[in-house]
Design brief:
The protein is of the alpha/beta class and 339 residues long. It folds into 2 domains: 26-120, Arc Repressor Mutant, subunit A; 126-326, D-Maltodextrin-Binding Protein, domain 2, CATH 3.40.190.290. Helix content is 40%, strand content 22%. It contains 14 helices and 12 strands. The strands form 4 sheets. The protein has a 6-stranded mixed beta sheet with strand order 6-5-7-12-8-11. A two-stranded antiparallel sheet has the order 1-2. Strands 3-4 form a two-stranded antiparallel sheet. Helix 2 (36-48) packs across helix 3. The longest helix has 30 residues, at 92-121.
């Protein structure tokens, strides 16, 4: 059937044709569904028999609850509640809708809970010393997230080896000789150590470019329970530089703090290669002695329990750490192999 309407002085004719087709099939599927927060507000209001009760349950204002329910009613073009002065109760159609929607919302909650639990169960726990966690892993994790499918990573930072090797830890990075009973070990990087300071500190102290002058300058020391870790005294000995007396003007109990102190111009710290690389690249630290460095026969290893369970997320993180290791900068010394 056609309807003809005449409009205006030019006798233009608008023709509206009634087409026989099902409009519901043309609706966007997304437009059929209301917003989830509308449904949750409706559910809570129905369960609590009040907007005030729903407000407390969902921790949003009573006005917001009332508005969401009203928008849901407008979406379906029906009244879901009869509103009294201080009470509400479901209309017959509202009650039927509540009976239908409640099991679906519960099913959605169960599906969401299962997915969250599966994700949390597959989280990867990495344990490392404070220095490795703060200076090696943290700067690299954004790159991992950008390159790979997201993995929930729990990072445990501790200088207690027993804590790092706890049963609930999937991967551990520790300093050592590569031998841990009950663990497989892959070398990530060797131990090469050199002095570092801020560019500003060197500008103010231009004479610290020799071992003799450096030993009399402001040295940043680290004092921890790990007496086997490198100290200034041990470093000077490795350099065959006899120093009778020297003073550590700043003494700290963790290596990241010592590096932060050096960045802030408080003195000279011992820099571990691969831990301070990003600070050298950003010119926040420099090497006042140039390429002079000492190395030990120890290194930093990636450990995993020999009888530990394997799962895809852990394997993905492990492979990434080994890829980072393979592409690392090599530090060369005269008459020595690279580490």
């Amino acid at each position: 059937m056609a309807i003809y309407l005449r409009q205006g002085y030019d006798n233009a004719i608008l023709v509206f044709t009634k087409l026989n087709y099902d409009w519901s099939k043309q609706m966007n599927k997304n437009n059929v569904l209301p917003r989830l927060d509308y449904l949750l507000a409706f559910e809570s209001a129905a369960v609590n028999n009040s907007f005030a009760g729903a407000s407390k349950a969902l921790n949003i204002s009573e006005t917001a609850i009332s508005r969401k329910v009203r928008l849901l009613e407008l979406h379906y073009k029906i009244n879901l509640f009869n509103r009294g002065h201080r009470s509400i109760h479901l209309t017959p159609r509202g009650q039927r809708f509540f009976d239908d929607i409640l099991p679906l919302l519960d099913q959605l909650r169960a599906l969401s809970q299962n997915l969250l639990e599966a994700t949390l169960n597959n989280a990867v726990t990495i344990a490392a010393t404070n220095s490795v966690a703060g200076l090696y892993l943290m700067p690299k994790l954004p790159r991992f997230n950008a390159l790979y499918e997201p993995v929930n990573i729990n990072l445990l930072s501790s200088d207690d080896d027993d804590e790092c090797l706890a049963e609930d830890v999937d991967l551990t990075i520790l300093r050592g000789n590569g031998h841990w009973s009950g663990y497989s070990a892959e070398l990530l990087f060797g131990e090469t150590i050199f002095p570092v300071c801020s560019p500003e500190f060197l500008r103010k102290n231009p004479g610290i470019t020799t071992l003799a002058a450096m030993s009399q300058s402001s040295l940043i020391g680290i004092h921890t329970m790990h007496t086997e870790w490198m100290t200034w005294r041990a470093w000077f000995d490795l350099m065959h530089h006899a120093v009778a007396e020297f003073e550590e003007t700043v003494s700290l109990n963790t290596y990241p703090l010592a590096i932060e102190a050096a960045v802030n111009g408080l003195g000279i710290a011992l820099g571990w290669a691969h831990l301070v690389d990003h600070l050298l690249e950003d010119n926040k630290l420099i090497r006042p002695l140039g390429n002079i460095s000492a190395r030990t026969d120890h290194g930093y290893y990636l450990l995993k329990a020999s009888d530990g369970p394997s799962f895809p997320e852990r394997d993905r993180v492990e492979n990434w750490l080994l890829e980072v290791s393979a592409s690392r900068q090599r530090y060369q010394q005269p008459n020595a192999s690279t580490l």
